[in-house]
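INFO  loader      accepted 1 record
INFO  loader      residues=562
INFO  predictor   begin
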Amino acid sequence: MVCIPRLNVQTSGILQNPPFKTKRLHYTSHQYRPKSQLKKSFSVERTAKLSTNSGEALLQNPKDSRTRRSRKKELRETPEMILRVKLDQCSKNGDLAEALRLYNEAKMLDVKLNVHHYNVLLYLCSAGSDGSEEDELDLARLEKGFKIFKQMSIDKVEPNEATFTNVSRLAAAKEDPDLAFDLIKKMKDHGIGPKLRSYGPALFGFCKKGMADKAYEVDSHMVDNEVLAEEPELSSLLKVSSEVNREEKVYEILHRLRATVRQVSEETAATVEEWFKSKRAGEVGVENWDVGKVVKGIVKGGGGWHGQGWLGKGDWRVVRTTMNEMGVCQSCGEKLVCIDIDPKETENFARSLAELASKREAKTGFLQFQEWLQRHGPFDAVVDGANVGLAYQRNFSFSQIARVVNQLRRISPSKKLPLVVLHKNRVTGGPAQHPNNRKLLEGWKNAGALYATPVGSNDDWYWLYAAVSSKCLLVTNDEMRDHLFNLLGNSFFPRWKEKHQVRLRPSAADGMSLQMPPPYSIVIQESETGRWHIPSATREEEDVDTITTTPRRWICATRGKQ
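INFO  predictor   done
INFO  writer      dumping tokens
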């Protein structure tokens, strides 16, 4: 194994006695060897003849008679690759001091650094502080980062998105959001599209300084580049808008939270409360509004909001409360609505879901399922067989699935059996061989109510597509939060899931009861009389068992006169 050695030449400067420390980073002084001895230490005899500028050419030269394995091994032993491995380890350990030692050593040996090397160094320089305090030690770290970025330009190493994001973080740590924003703008000159993380240093920096107009400029730049703000960004914009009394922006951002976040974090909820309790919030609004325009806005939006601006005048009464099972506010008595989903949205979502599934599943297998569904569907309900069969127990139970199937059939308008989706292994082996279970499976199969997904497939795609395309209920306790479901986005899917997912809960009577979707939408709602109800999602409610059993807390904001 080849290691980058420690050097033994007595020298001065930042590496011998680094002037800064942080909680995460640990620094030590180092000794150096004469430069004449250094080149030997960066590689073994086998790689001594390799150019430090062309290590990757080892794998790209088709005339090279050596095996691919031996060429890969030699690539791993090039100075560039050794440096990369060592820097990656520094990144993992948060060890800036060692990374800077390696950087200086590499420069002395004329090892050519690439964009990855520089990005690791810039990341470590930007990661040591949250910008909450600034002293000489912290400034030294930041200045070193900017010097490394300048050297990157001198070396003509083309930056990428990660480069600009890391340098933006350096700028934010120096409390210079203008520089952070300028760096984002320069990405375009390099043909780089900014990501959400690219905007954070500038946006949060402007918001922290109360520079609302600059923050709106960053937000506008995000929109122009089709970068969707998430709750942290919207919450910061909401806070600064409230602080500078920009009521029209507060109104706009509340609706953006409604459309993208739906339930807000405790931190955002506190910001919302601060706004409604402020003096300015009580002063803004119209007393005599156009009722027809408000009703028209509600119908156009599908219910739950009108978008016509602040209604009413006077101080707000702001309380934390709950809803009863029918969606009636326990504070003001208003009944929340169930917001409609456009049928075209459902059809488009089903089409996108099928395309995703076809790319990740055996194409012929999923196409066969779509054809089968055309012949036997639509259904009133779809059952995630694997999840239901294992709900609240260790051993798979077909009888538990059967009880759920029978309950669904009883409440079905058509009295049709629901579709049970199970993996092929579930219906051919193990408990499936028991005579009673075999009889159940045969009955479902003959009725066209059982589909066995092929070996090697992910049955999640199948039961989800069946439920979406049939526009029906889906019975599963799967919260659908893993990578597969993240591919579906956070715009339509959460709304669909809220209106269609049926969960299971233990029951003394039937062994398992069906918890139907709520008759109202758990989302920020603005009523036609100007009242606001904002659902909060605390950290505890992220737990699967808590989110559906603990009453959700809502902010109820009504005018004092209402």
